[in-house]
Task: inverse folding
């Protein structure tokens, strides 16, 4: 899949190092160019986009020149893309559902106008989940479905030899106006893939943008669970595909030292699936003596299986934040979501243990899920308020349910009147928190939005009361008392507390589940 990466510099460097003994660089001396583009997105840059770095490695190992252009650090991206594409085999663009599609199509339109015969390859989560619809757009020639390290390599090799794409597994393409879907490609073991081409990353450029030297890294892909709203199972088929703890520690220490990294964002879908492995990674990092901070996502059941001392070890190793997809505390809603693995007590235990380790946590919440009632929402908000009262390291990121493509619940959603976007352009207008749910309209939507405003104001006030001056603490105490009354009585008219909180900058509506930093209201998490 064509995803993100690093410098806006043309890179023609020695082949990337490999991770498996069976991988060998091509002996061919012919070098051909592949241009990879990652569109800009709302929210802070996490660092060099890992997925494009992973895609670049097999190409480099087989003698191709790779040019990576990331709009997050390249203000001249359209002009550079045109220049680099003039002698390229193809242009690859990585796409997530939402506004990134618009940016991708704008670039494809510019390239097609100047170079109509240059193949434009779309990859990433959205094209994988909507391959047919994506190819219906005149600007897209090929779609890479699923993880694309080897698929993109084969595409480049076919183009280099002047051959067609028949038989290349893992892709869909157009031939004489007809859309053809080749067979699926099996997901490769991580250890059978070349190491991502971190040496292509311009860490200085990302530091100038974000103010810190960051690295995106994956110790595993896949999650064993099959939540009805999640697309992960479509990509990885519930297979937890992981590097060994020993490899992760050695690789991370090498990368952090070589590139002077201060913070690592671990992009795993569910980092501690193998609890012993997760603890071993933390212990290895701690014992190395190399100090950096790192963050990850997890589910509360796995974190709860760690002992207090093991969580303290996580904190001592540099873990500063963990994001959890808790979604709801209502048993009936969790059952609808197919999250039977999640239990209420584990949420409290996760917050408690993380606090022992000096680790901040954020609980993601989903509201408006099909079948959810107002009593379920109130139950969730009251429980989360209780957790936050007991543990000061907790924050929240509430969202209205967004039906992304490919999720298992789509047949039910269509029966309930949700209209699936009919084109690639329509999907571009579906950012997180944009409500498209027929059952959540009018007064019910108004009440939910007001409840969430009061909930977030109440918790943000709690987190800031100890850090403000006496006058600020008095104001926060007044707001907090009023908020508690609001949530108990469910009286939401004349929201003067919300107005005051906004005026005094006391509302943070969403946080990244990867790093915990505040996000723009309608932004999407990019990983």
Result:
């Amino acid at each position: 899949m064509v995803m993100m990466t690093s410098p806006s510099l043309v890179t023609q460097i020695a082949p990337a190092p490999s991770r498996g003994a069976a991988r060998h660089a091509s002996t061919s001396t012919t070098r051909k160019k592949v241009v990879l583009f990652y569109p800009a997105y709302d929210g802070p840059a996490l660092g060099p986009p890992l997925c494009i770095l992973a895609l670049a490695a097999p190409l480099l190992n087989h003698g191709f020149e790779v040019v990576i252009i990331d709009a997050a650090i390249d203000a001249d991206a359209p002009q550079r893309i045109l220049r680099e594409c003039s002698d390229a085999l193809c242009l690859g663009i990585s796409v997530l559902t939402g506004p990134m599609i618009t940016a991708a199509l704008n670039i494809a339109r510019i390239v097609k106008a100047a170079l109509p015969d240059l193949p434009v390859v779309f990859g990433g989560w959205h094209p994988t989940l909507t391959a047919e619809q994506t190819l219906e757009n005149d600007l897209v020639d090929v779609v890479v479905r699923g993880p694309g390290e080897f698929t993109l390599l084969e595409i480049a090799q076919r183009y280099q030899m002047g051959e067609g794409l028949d038989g290349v597994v893992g892709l869909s393409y157009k031939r004489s106006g007809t859309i053809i879907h080749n067979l699926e490609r099996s997901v490769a073991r991580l250890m059978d893939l070349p190491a991502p081409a971190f040496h292509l990353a311009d860490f200085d450029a990302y530091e100038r943008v974000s103010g810190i030297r960051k690295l995106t890294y994956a110790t595993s892909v896949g999650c064993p669970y099959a939540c009805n709203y999640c697309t992960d199972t479509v990509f990885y088929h519930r297979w937890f595909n992981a590097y060994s703890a020993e490899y992760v520690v050695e690789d991370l220490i090498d990368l952090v030292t070589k590139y002077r990294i201060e913070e690592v964002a671990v992009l795993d879908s569910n980092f501690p699936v193998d609890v012993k492995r997760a603890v071993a990674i933390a212990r290895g990092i701690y014992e190395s003596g190399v100090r950096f901070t790192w963050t990850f996502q997890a589910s509360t059941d796995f974190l709860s299986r760690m002992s207090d001392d093991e969580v303290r070890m996580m904190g001592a190793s540099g873990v500063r934040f963990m994001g959890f997809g808790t979604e709801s505390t209502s048993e009936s809603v969790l059952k609808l979501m197919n999250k039977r693995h999640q239990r209420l007590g584990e949420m409290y235990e996760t917050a408690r243990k993380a606090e022992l380790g000096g680790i901040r946590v954020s609980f993601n919440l989903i509201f408006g899920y099909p079948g959810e009632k107002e009593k379920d929402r109130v139950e969730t908000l009251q429980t989360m308020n209780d957790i936050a009262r007991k543990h000061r390291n907790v924050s929240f990121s509430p969202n209205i349910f967004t039906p992304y493509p490919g999720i298992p619940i789509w047949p039910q959603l269509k029966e309930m009147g949700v209209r699936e976007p009919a084109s690639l352009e329509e999907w571009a207008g579906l950012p997180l928190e944009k409500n498209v749910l027929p059952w959540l309209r009018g007064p019910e939507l108004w009440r939910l939005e007001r409840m969430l405003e009061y909930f977030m104001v109440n918790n943000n006030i709690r987190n800031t009361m100890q850090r403000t001056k006496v006058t600020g603490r008095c104001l926060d105490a007044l707001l907090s008392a009023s908020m508690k009354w609001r949530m108990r009585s469910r009286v939401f008219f004349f929201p003067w507390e919300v107005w005051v909180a906004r005026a005094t900058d006391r509302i943070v509506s969403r946080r990244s589940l990867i790093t915990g930093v505040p996000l723009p209201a309608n932004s999407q998490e990019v990983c």
Notes: DSSP finds 20 helices and 16 strands in the chain. The longest helix spans residues 442-464.
